[in-house]
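Slide 14.
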Amino acid sequence: MNPQVKDYLNKVRERLYLEPVAERQVMCEVYSYFEERISELTEAGYSEEEAVRLAIKSFGRPKEVARLMHEAHSQRCWGEALLAALPHFVVAIIFGFGLWYHLWIPVILAPIAAVTIWGWWQGKPFWIYPWIGYSLIPLLVAGYFLVSVVNRTMLKLFLGGASPVNVMILLVILLFYSVSALVITATAIRVVKRDWMLTSLMLFPLPVVGGWMITRDKAIGLASGSSEALHSLDLRMAWALVTLGLATVIFLRLKHRSHKMGALVVATLLAFILVWHTTGQPLSLPSLLLTGILLGFFFLVPAIAEPIVGHGESEPLNDSWLRWHNH
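Slide 15: predicted structure.
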């Protein structure tokens, strides 16, 4: 493959942000165009170098070509968009009917994890990413509940009253935190290689559920108080999750990446506001600004990570790869 053509195709590929099957199809189409165009130009009397230059010029800037290709192939059908939003809506129903305290969450998360594993091995279609996010929630919940155990054990160590059993428990918990951080980081890196926006879509539920746990724990306690107190805040959490579900549908139905990003930011901000109101405290301007900063950090980290970890999960782009997929 001509080095200039290979460089051009790589620049297009880096900005496609499509699932592997669609990416291969698009790259094969573009490569076929170059083969045909260069062949036409060389037959017309141009040198190979000049033919390559004219073919690249006629096709346009890689960024613009990738944008047009992305818009033509990135919009998902309604069925796929609703499938992606399904875990948001299911968990919202659980909160809406106050069933989270009766072990319905673990019962639901088990099949969600099974669907996630199946989808991961089926090539990671776009609908799978919210499912991955909910599969990571048990790590978040367990980590939050273990904080108090760590604090008590650390206090005993500081005061000199910790037994070998306490030390062993602390080491196991720290190992759990390390493994959890490794799993979340490794998963996020794999998704960033596909598209950093999909990482934000995947992690969508984690800050919302984490914010609900913290605000609710401070206001009432996660598992204490009367039945009325336990479920008094569930409806707002349900609406927050419905908001995330609707944003997921909108995200997958939109074509323009800037519009997709706007849908994620607005939906997450609304969800945070709903969760904040579970504290019963007014949402002041400083609190709103702080929430905006945290959301900005949440969305910017994947964007910043993408140039570092690289883009693309498929095989290296070369002549034999393109020819094989073209047939």
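Speaker note: The mean pLDDT is 79.
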